[in-house]
Amino acid sequence: MNKESAKLKRLDIGWYYIKYQLFTKALWFFLIFPFYRWMLQRLIDSTGRVSISSGDYLDFLLTPQGIIALIITIFTWMFLIGLDIHSFIWLSALYQEKRSLPTMSGLIVLSITSLKRLLNPIGFLITLYIALIIPIIRVGFSISMTESFKIPNFIADVIYLNPLYTTAYVVILLILTITTLGSIFFFHFVLLKNQPLIKSLKESFCIVRVHFKIFYT
């Protein structure tokens, strides 16, 4: 492939990805999120509440409705992992292998069906990590639904006003950042190599450790 053909190919896949992002974000904002919010509100209403505040969300989560809401939320996050992360990895792999691009619906189906690898306790923990931890440390792949997530102000104030808590918080953030950087290729091994989740994590840490200077310098 000459330079001109390679440039056209990059423009082609770039435009394809832009269209995919516009389509999936419209799908999220006009269909998935309204339906998700409607289901949560019905569950909240069924407990006699109008809304959930920071003071009673734990009480709500301990109710049957709260457990159902948590399950729905996790599966919604998993769906977004398919739309946001899996699709990007599949598209990158197809480009590197110089294969023809699938239809937009085909890419969505491929990305969503590959989520079956996360349907286990480890997969749920990874989903929680991506949805709640990565937005805080601002490193690695994230999903659109939780990318603006942050520690509540009342908790942050307690942390920053206590030197011991601040030190512990910084240490924890450092550990989480190292963990995230080390597992950056986790989904590549899961999706492209069809490897088990634990093995994919180990392989990712191994390749990052060996080639750290190339990836992060």
UniProtKB/TrEMBL annotation:
Keywords per UniProt: Membrane, Transmembrane, Transmembrane helix
Residue intervals of the Glycerophosphoryl diester phosphodiesterase membrane domain: 16-214
Transmembrane feature ranges: 20-39, 67-95, 122-144, 164-192
Source organism: Faecalicoccus pleomorphus
UniProt superkingdom: Bacteria
Pfam annotation, one family: GPDPase_memb
Name this polypeptide is given: Glycerophosphoryl diester phosphodiesterase membrane domain-containing protein
